[in-house]
Amino acid sequence: MDSAIGKRLRMSRIVHPTSARTILVAYAHGVLLGPLAGLASRAELAQQAKTLRGADGVLVPPGLLRYVVPLFEGRDAPGLMVLLGWQNISRPAPLLGYREGSTALLASLERVAASGAAGVMTYLYLGFDDPHDEAREIEQLVRVQEACDRLGLVHLVESRAVHHEQDADGHFRLDVLKLHTRIAAEIGADLIKTKYPGHPEALQELVESCPCPIVIAGGPRKERAEDAYQLARAIVKGGGAGIVFGRNIYQQPDPAAALSAFRAIVHGEDGGSDG
After folding, report:
1. Sign of the Cα pseudo-torsion (4, 208, 159, 94, in order)
2. Cα–Cα distance between 22 and 202 in angstroms, integer?
3. Are the CB atoms for 100 and 128 separated by under 8 Å?
4. pLDDT at 275 over 90
């Protein structure tokens, strides 16, 4: 059997057949930031296994999967994406954060494939003070990419910069985004997750500069749900291949309703609400 067929079939589990976009829920912050609201207790994990089923895919760390198996059971279930990469680069100083930090892998690709996952997400960080740290990032990404190609797994890469990510206005710099997304694409990523550059026109320029589809991160929970919906609209307008939102979904009072609203925006499905 051809592993390329396996990758194609797995991709079809997380990409909407009509819109050719995806809604991925990042339910993986615990392994990065500890017990946040929405995933802080076993009761919340059990509840989210019911409320997050409207997603196209849900991203969970390998060790969390055992607690949310019902989320991925059945024909109407979202695709399982495993958070293979781990990082402490973005961890805040009060939570034992570092000036730069590092990355590592949480499991073997064989273990991920055995779980029935559609794919994995890893990180690519550029711009460390020590250039050898950047080289280590590249080498790790290449090893994962080769294993994903061999096993037919979808490889989602979150590409970022350690320093100088944002301009004076607080927008993520388009030139830096172009650099690390293009590198991730040329290493072989199937999907790339990155930050929103501030407006749809900039996103369109980013999308056109990268041969690989780009999905956009939602970031911390916004004070108003409508602000998250507005960001999703801007991502669609700018040609993004979808959204990877976590706290703006699972920390909302009604995550299922939020997913319905995002499906209306991202996929143009009836029955969604913008608020």
Report:
1. negative
2. 20
3. yes
4. no
